[in-house]
Amino acid sequence: MYKRYNSKDKESIYKYAQELKGKTFKDICDADKYFLTEVVKEVTEEEYRISYENKNRKGGLGEIVEERYFHYKADNISEADFSDAQVELKVTPYKINKNGTISAKERLIISMINYMKIINMDFYNSNAWEKLKNILLVYYLWEPNIEDRLDYMINYIYMLSPEGEDLRIIESDFYKIRQKVIDGKAHELSEGDTLYLGAATKSSNSKNRTPQPNSKILAKPRAFSLKTSYMTYVLRNYITGGSEREDKILKDDTVLGFEEYVLNKINQYKNIKDTDLFKEFFDDENIKSKNRYSRLALEILGVKTKNAEEFEKANIEVKAVRIESDKKLRESMSFPAFKTMELIKQNWEESDINNYFTETKFLFVIYKKKQNNYYLKGAKFWNMPVDDIEGSLREEWQRAVNIFREGVKFTIKRPDYPIRNNLPKKSNTKILHVRPHARKGAHVINGIKYGNGEIERDTDLLPDGNRMTKQCFWLNNDYILKQIKDKLK
N or C: which end of the chain has fewer CB within 10 A? Predict the structure, then answer.
């Protein structure tokens, strides 16, 4: 087969891949006169391109690079693509954010998890490691206004070979996934269980289920994947260098057990009051910054930058939880305001809320009030259980979306009274409700303005043409309280 590189040599493969920079997938097809004439003779050039240009098709662009550039037939075998060189080829998209930064557009699928085999696998003998040890990353720019996917352009080439702390965490993640399968809980697997290497759902049909070894409960098919947050860190720091490096929490290569290390560090300050901690770590016991309680956790961990490198890679969010003297949590947890016209276009499987709680792990730093001070009670890593995500969270999200689609119903008693609506409230939900997220309230209903907020700044357009105060999803405070009750004893 015609090849301009040595498929047994990693450096030769990498050097040849560099020539992909600045090329579109259409350019690759235009330049190749070999594959369709010598390998797959029954398919015409036009038929081949039509099968890949559909924007709604998932995947496939990697096959173009495999077949039309590296000249080997795409397959789904467990070995690395270039097995003699121990190199796996992965073609993956990135995007430009509204603030000008770049991010990976999606997680990187590595290989399918075989529930029946993983229970007897060692990490370094697994199909995951076979494809993880040397990943040839081909990053292309995803642009929403491009209709023909073949016009996407390849801009970055990088050989990712996990080592050091990254490799130790990935290995630990593998064993966490394996242990859950051994325990007969493959149906409870979630990407939030782990740090860098996740167990992502992988099926064209969300209702597909497959057997697992130690339980009669069928589980969703899943694949090993490098999380979107990890791939974003690789892109920003290892490839482009366009982001400031964050401080590391683990500064000693001999430390084992990242989560245990973090919790032990924070728990050293258990039962110490907030003003004493502020004085020690901020040199100001009267500090008033809004994020001082969550920031305190990073300071305890020795992190002076905006975030910790490990938290950035693992998509871990630090959330301070302050319990009042009466053991109640005053505030629910808010998330960024959404645009209703974008929300109503989403389906559950690809919704922002589903992705967020599936991929995010939280570090709850818990304080309890006694007299006039809050005392540190400890910390807890937490991710939302799959049963909650696919149960109440899904139902309550869908209820809100349906109301927006069908038309929000407003109750107006008097112009100077708060305007009521029929969106899900904390009082009639278990996990998620909808509330305003704006400086001031404002509505425009049937052409009449209510409230003292600014229309452009404080309101959001609804499908029926009315406008209401910007809304966001809130995680119910009593639900959060249930997740941390073991830390309040």
Answer: C
Cα(10)–Cα(14) distance, rounded to whole angstroms?
A: 6
- Show Cβ contacts of residue 107 under 8 Å, excluding neighbours closer than 6 positions: 191, 198, 200, 225, 226, 227, 228, 231, 359
CATH number for the domain including 54?
Answer: 3.40.600.10
Residues 6+ apart with CB under 8 A from 139: 92, 93, 94, 154, 155, 156, 157, 158, 235, 239
Question: In this structure, are residues 349 and 306 in contact, taking their beta carbons and an 8 Å threshold?
Answer: no
Q: Is there a single domain that holds both residue 329 and residue 410?
A: no
Can you tell me the distance from the alpha carbon of 381 to that of 317, in angstroms, rounded to the nearest whole number? 10
Amino acid at 409: K
Are the C-beta atoms of 447 and 464 separated by less than 8 Å? no
Token readout for 264 is 């032990």
Ordered alpha helix ranges (H), 148-301: 164-182, 228-233, 258-267, 274-282, 292-300
Q: Is residue 319 within 8 Å of residue 311, measured between CB atoms? A: no
Supply the range of the domain harboring residue 289: 258-388+479-487
Q: Residue 243 above 90 pLDDT?
A: no
Q: Do 459 and 453 meet the contact criterion of CB atoms below 8 Å apart?
A: yes
Residue tagged 């899900």 (tokens): 424
Q: Give 182-224 pLDDT, tens digit per residue.
A: 999 999 999 999 999 999 998 666 788 999 999 999 999 999 9
How far is Cα 421 from Cα 431, in angstroms, rounded to an integer?
Answer: 19
Number of domains in the chain: 3
Q: Provide φ and ψ at 341, rounded to 5°.
A: -65, -25
Amino acid at 16: Y
Q: pLDDT band for 429, please (50, 70, 90 cuts).
A: very high
Q: pLDDT tens across 263-315, in order? A: 999 999 999 999 999 999 998 878 888 899 999 999 999 999 999 999 999 99
Q: Which of the listed residues 208, 239, 270 is the one where a domain comes to its end?
A: 239
Angle between helices 292-300 and 258-267 (to 10 degrees): 110
User: Are residue 394 and residue 362 in the same domain, yes or no?
Assistant: no
Burial letters 80-105, b for 16+ CB under 10 A, else e: bbbeebebbbbbbbbeeeeeeebbbb
Least confident of 49-58, 208-217, 313-322: 49-58
Cα 56 to Cα 283: distance, rounded to the nearest angstrom? 54
How confident is residue 54, by pLDDT bands cut at 50, 70 and 90?
low
Assign 320 to helix, strand or coil.
Answer: strand
Backbone angles phi, psi at 159, to 5 degrees: -100, 110
Instruction: Express each pLDDT in 70-83 by its tens digit.
Output: 988 777 677 889 99
Mark residue 268 as left, alpha or beta (left: phi above 0; alpha: psi -120 to 50; beta: remaining).
alpha
245 strand-pairing partners: none
Which two three-digit tokens encode residue 405?
């689609």
